[in-house]
Amino acid sequence: MDKRWRIGAVSYLNTRPLLLGMEQTPFNNRIDLIKSYPAQIAQNLLEDTIDIGLVPVAIIPMLSNPQIVSKYVIGTEGEVASVALFSQLPMEQIERVYLDNQSRTSVALAKVLLTQYWKKEVEFIPATEGYMENITGTTAGVIIGDRALACLNRFEYVYDLGLAWKQHTGLPFVFAAWVANKPIPSEFMKAFDAANGYGLLHLDEVIALIPTNEQVYDLHKYYTQNISYELTPEKRAGLAQFLEALK
């Protein structure tokens, strides 16, 4: 019997186009798909309980043999909408920042931008359950994923981290990539990429499968204007600059 590959993926709205082909085509018979939040998928890859993970790129330096194995990523050419610093006061008045515990990359990006772009010294606070209710006064917070989309109209100030990175560096940003910690056969990766690309060719079907109560944002805009899925040379350059900044 052929090996079933263990695939770890984030269960956010931004991954739905990439996962449609894995869940709705015969490729599903070749994999075991595990879905969780970004930091957990990263931990799974570090512990070798999955073969390939759609992981926050900030963990790449922690892996012994990291390799980006797909031409598809979760990236943005500018405004990403679902990764932002939220505040009730302008940037110059922010003193403390909650850091969303669901992602390593977004937290690291927020720290890089606050230091290098906004030139701010703030106190960082690990987020706990319900921390979004504590974003008030001089306390801001990083919120990512579907929760961020739901918060876009809740706060007076929304600092989009994808847009800030583009303004800071002139480059697009990669939040997550399909990463393995060992070589993956090229034949499997060809089928894997085809499965990834299936949903991008069938966005209307992707959106139709998402319950109305989860559509807190214009998903067609999100999938075509905010999230950018192709790993271009410009995105590779942005990724390299980000990983360098983490050092």
Describe the 3D structure.
The chain is globular and about 55 Å long. It has helices at 16-24, 38-46, 104-117, 145-151, 161-169, 186-200, 203-208, 219-226, 233-246, and strands at residues 5-10, 31-36, 52-56, 67-76, 83-87, 96-99, 123-126, 139-144, 157-160, 173-180, 228-230. The protein is 37% helix and 25% strand. The chain is of the alpha/beta class and 247 residues long. Strands 2-1-3-10-4-11 form a 6-stranded mixed sheet. It contains 9 helices and 11 strands. It has 2 domains: 5-76 and 172-246, D-Maltodextrin-Binding Protein, domain 2; 83-169, 3-Layer(aba) Sandwich (D-Maltodextrin-Binding Protein, domain 2).
Enumerate the spans where pLDDT stays under 50 for 5 or more consecutive residues.
none
CATH architecture annotation of the largest domain: 3-Layer(aba) Sandwich
Give me the CATH superfamily of the largest domain. Answer: Periplasmic binding protein-like II
Note the total helix count.
Answer: 9
Distance between the termini: 44 Å
Strand-and-helix sequence, N→C?
A: EHEHEEEEHEEHEHEHHHEH
User: What would the principal axes of the Cα set say about the shape?
Assistant: globular
- Structural class label: alpha/beta
CATH topology of the largest domain: D-Maltodextrin-Binding Protein, domain 2
Count of all domains: 2
Q: How many distinct beta strands?
A: 11
Strand content: 15-25%
How much is the radius of gyration in Å? 18 Å
Largest sheet: 6 strands, mixed
Biggest sheet strand order reads 2-1-3-10-4-11
What oligomeric assembly is this protein in? single chain
CATH class of the largest domain: Alpha Beta
The whole-number mean of residue pLDDT values reads 94
The percent of residues in helical segments reads 25-40%
